[in-house]
Amino acid sequence: MIIPVRCFTCGTVVASSWEPFLKRTRAGEEPRKVLDELGLSRYCCRRMLLSNVDLMDDVISFG
Asked: In this structure, is residue 33 part of a structural domain?
């Protein structure tokens, strides 16, 4: 799935944080620390990144 541009609950822009979050967590950093440093302190915004599943590679093969 494509990350939503804004948080569904509060409207904060979260899409710009997806790439840094993904890169840093894949490098082994703790997600809690990364989200804190990206400025996502509300739990509604944090869930937008934590619950997102990157399915774009799977979907592209059907296009």
From this structure: yes
For residues 61 and 42, give the distance between their C-alpha atoms in angstroms, rounded to a whole number: 35
In a domain, 2, yes or no: no
Phi/psi for 13 (5° steps) reads -70, 120
Give which of 2, 3, 8, 12 is closest to 40, Cα–Cα.
Answer: 12
Name the residue range of residue 31's domain. 15-60
**For 24-39, how does the pLDDT look when each residue is reduced to its tens digit (9 = 90+)?**
999 999 999 999 999 9
Q: What pTM did the predictor assign?
A: 0.79
Amino acid of residue 25:
T
54: Cβ contacts below 8 Å, ≥ 6 apart: 1, 22
Contacts of 24 (CB under 8 A, 6+ apart): 34
